[in-house]
Amino acid sequence: MFAVCAATLAVALRPLWLRVQLSRAKHRSLAGHARIGRTLARLLPYYEYDESEFFRADDAPEPIADQRRAAFAQLAALYARRYARSVKLTQEVQGELADLQFTARYRVPFQFSRLVRERLSAGAFVVSSSGPTTTDLDGNRRYDLTGSYGVNVFGYDFYKECIARGSERVRDLGPVLGAYHPLTAYNVHRLREISGLDEISFHMSGTEAVMQAVRLARYHTGRDFLVRFCGAYHGWWGDVQPGVGNPIAARDTYTLKDMDEAALRVLRSRRDIACVLVNPLQALHPNMGAPTDSTLVDSSRDAHFDRAAYTAWLQKLRAVCSERNIVLIFDEVFLGFRIARRGAQEYFGVRADMVTYGKTVAGGLPIGVVCGLKQLMRRFRDDRPADVCFARGTFNTHPYVMGAMYEFLQRLDSPDIQACYRNLDEVWNARALRLNERLRAAGLNVQVANLSSVWTVHYPRPSRYNWMFQYYLRAQDLAISWVGTGRLIFSLDYTDADFAEVADRFVTAAEQMQREGWWWSSPALTNKAIKRRVLKELIRAYVAPSDRSARPAAGTAALGDKATHHEMGP
User: Fold this and answer.
1) Residue 183 in 3-state DSSP?
2) 200 and 376 Cβ atoms separated by less than 8 Å
3) How far apart are CA 430 and CA 447, in angstroms?
4) CA-angle at 23, arms to 22 and 26, nearest 5°
5) CB 488 within 8 A of CB 149
6) Residue 330 to residues 145, 177, 351, 356, 525: CA-CA distances in angstroms?
7) pLDDT tens digits, one per residue of 255-302
């Protein structure tokens, strides 16, 4: 009887124990608690600073505020002169292009956004590229640090050639869909060789490729849940974006702490997990969302890449997934081909069950690719003809995409491209180290962290105005994406001379920003104090929206990390 009671009690308590384990495996930030994050995002009120508060949000003395006001006016005048045509066209189309409206609003913390939108627009249009530079409508030639959201691994000239020559190869067929151009066969063979996996399927975007990989994992395991790690981006579809930014809550997603034993315990104990998604870029900032200047409320942004530690983590993860028959998926849509020819599997020495590629692999044209083990890629069952895992798409193997991909995959083995991979980490780590030494020696409030050629900027001393740095960088003719200094992406065709020029401009921008008072500091200005002040402002705006320092505006805005990913927008 005692044994029966004990067994009954154990069965009854198991769900509670699993729930406790799951809670312990969640990151303590809002990004780790999707439901709470979504609720707070709906409650967060909009307010904005007037011109007086705009320049004294850190309680700087009036002379510093006057210095900032004058510097802001000078910078705005420079932008108006230099980007006149680009800004004019941007303003003409912005009211009709929803993407531009979104990215314009989320370049800086929302309290500062209106004044910045009005006076510091650089426009959204460019007309040409050459080497590591782009040129806008006004003829401004800038060193490109956007990387086209990860597409540009080998340089724009490389991709222009892939597109041009690939188009020539398929010109006779044109946009015939459904049937395959013969080049597709070569692409399949090469992707199998590169991924080390058995079968391939093509899709129209990276988001769609990840959707299909997860769908196949669920189909073959008979389990519902996917595991993603806190802060990781896997596209904008609902199941991988369970928090802020998703109108409907995800039901079959666990968001766990990255690089944490508690997450492994959840994987070992639960029977409902179909797959684990890994975005290797998270090694640069585990458990944090893709960094963006719209969340630079203070200076708490941080990043650091430890290759050995992340390798050890992936090895543990691989072992647990193998033990529990959980599908391990490497999402290399962003990072694929950038850190190694065979991607993260080669770089970290860990094999995945499925890999997704996108962005760069089609020679600069849109694509999503799933590579997987044979037993995971099949979309039907021999013994159940109606039990299928349906997936298809009109443009999945568009001939022009296949042509550009053919060129890309052929050139991957060329001496020039192989040279790009030679001592890759040493080259980019040394560049980051030298730049950081210059910034420290000059006493500037800027440092960089990198995972190879993907960089992020962080700020050692507390400040309310770090987001202004992106505008000083643009004034030095450095092209920055809409997420600002959160993500700098270098193409691998940057020579030492190119990078030296970028480094000089980077330091010059930081020196000017410091001279003009934006990084004023005092003992009372701490990250904790800044956050406390902003929290008080939010509460005041919520309970008393007519208050002078928290004037309401149409609509609401959220500080959630899900609305700020580098993959979105111009």
Assistant:
1) helix
2) no
3) 14
4) 90
5) no
6) 25, 29, 9, 6, 41
7) 999 999 999 999 999 999 999 999 999 999 999 988 999 999 999 999
Q: Pseudo-torsion of CA 375, 378, 381, 382, nearest 10°?
A: -80
CA-closest candidate to residue 422, choices 324, 523, 503, 492? 492
Secondary structure (DSSP) of 32-85 = G-HHHHHHHHHHPPP-B--HHHHT-TT---HHHHHHHHHHHHHHHHHHHHHTHH
Helix axes 62-82, 84-94, angle to 10 degrees: 90
Q: Which secondary structure element, helix H or strand E, spans residue 255, and what is its range?
A: strand 253-256
Which of 113, 145, 115, 139 lies closest to 125, judged by CA?
Answer: 139
In terms of Cβ atoms closer than 10 Å to its own Cβ (0-12, 13-18, 19+), residue 73 is exposed
| Coil, strand or helix at 380 | strand
Compute the residue count for the chain: 570
User: At 272, phi and psi to the nearest 5?
Assistant: -110, 10
- Is residue 444 pLDDT above 90, yes or no? yes
pLDDT tens digits, one per residue of 129-139: 999 999 999 99
More reliable by pLDDT, 146 or 41: 146
Spell out a b/e string for 344-365, using b for 16 or more CB atoms within 10 Å of the CB, else e: bbebbebbbbbbbbbbbbbbbb
Distances (CA, A) of 548 to 280, 537, 552, 557: 45, 11, 9, 19
Shortest CA distance to 131 belongs to which of 147, 146, 149, 143?
143
The residue written with tokens 């200047």 in the block is: 293
Sign of CA dihedral 537, 539, 541, 543: negative
Confidence of residue 90 (pLDDT cuts 50, 70, 90): very high
With beta carbons less than 8 A apart as the criterion, state whether 191 and 200 touch.
Answer: yes
d(CA 482, CA 106): 8
| Vertex 270: Cα angle to 266 and 273 (nearest 5) | 95
The pLDDT tens digits for 357-386 are 998 999 999 999 999 999 999 998 989 989
Distance CA 208, CA 27 (A): 27
Predicted TM-score (pTM) of this structure: 0.92
> How buried is residue 139: exposed, middle or buried, by Cβ count under 10 Å (0-12/13-18/19+)?
exposed
Asked whether 136 and 90 are in contact (CB, 8 A), the reply is no
* Helix, strand or coil, per DSSP, at residue 203: strand
* Tokens 């111009």, residue located: 570
Pairing label, strands 354-358, 368-372: antiparallel
Pairing of strands 133-136, 126-130: antiparallel
Distance CA 266, CA 199 (A): 30
- How far apart are the C-alpha atoms of 66 and 61, rounded to whole Å? 9
